[in-house]
From TrEMBL:
GO cellular component: plasma membrane
This protein's name: Histidine kinase
One GO MF term: kinase activity
Record Pfam families: sCache_2 (PF17200)
Signal peptide feature range: 1-22
Location, primary (coarse class): membrane
Record carries keyword S-adenosyl-L-methionine: no
Residue ranges annotated for the Single Cache domain, each copy included: 26-104
Species this protein is from: Pseudoduganella rivuli
Domain of life: Bacteria
Translocase is among the record's keywords: no
Membrane topology field: Multi-pass membrane protein
InterPro entries hit by this protein: sCache_2 (IPR033480)
Length: 153
């Protein structure tokens, strides 16, 4: 009986001391800019390896709601950190929840700017709901490399 009481007491103590489920960590604008800079450097070094790692959701590239996406200058997806099925697809005419042709706009911005922020609405990978999103992009070697943050407030 003494062992049962001790085991029960230990189990109870562990249950009350166990950490609660971790709250999701949401990306910041600075983190989006950092992961894009990291992706630009990695793509210059070995684009095939980088594209594969991003698309495989390697933790070096995908952290919570932060992930890179790489396009050619015509809107074809070369790597996608949340949806491997998008790779190889021409998404130029893809529209957001508000009907905005956001990839077309992104390619138009990339044609005239080396780096930029863009706003649109997109599905949040954590909540699965449509949220306003800000995407940071840089043009590099005929590609557009982006990562974004969701506006949660």
């Amino acid at each position: 009986m003494k062992h049962f009481v001790t085991a029960a007491s230990l189990a109870s103590a562990l249950a009350t001391c166990a950490p609660a489920a971790a709250e999701p960590v949401y990306a910041t604008p600075a983190q989006a800019e950092q992961i894009v800079a990291k992706a630009v450097a990695a793509v210059r070094k070995d684009n095939a390896k980088t594209f594969a790692a991003i698309t495989a959701k390697d933790p070096a590239w995908v952290q919570g709601d932060l992930y890179p996406v790489v396009y050619d200058m015509h809107g074809k997806v070369l790597a996608h950190g949340q949806n491997a099925r998008m790779v190889g697809k021409d998404v130029l005419e893809l529209r957001d929840a508000d009907g905005k042709a956001f990839i077309r706009e992104r390619m138009e911005l990339a044609a005239t700017k080396a780096s930029f922020w863009q706003d649109y609405a997109f599905v949040d990978p954590i909540t699965k709901s449509i949220l306003p999103k800000r995407m940071y992009c840089e043009r590099s070697e005929g590609m557009v490399i982006c990562a974004g943050i969701y506006k949660r407030h």
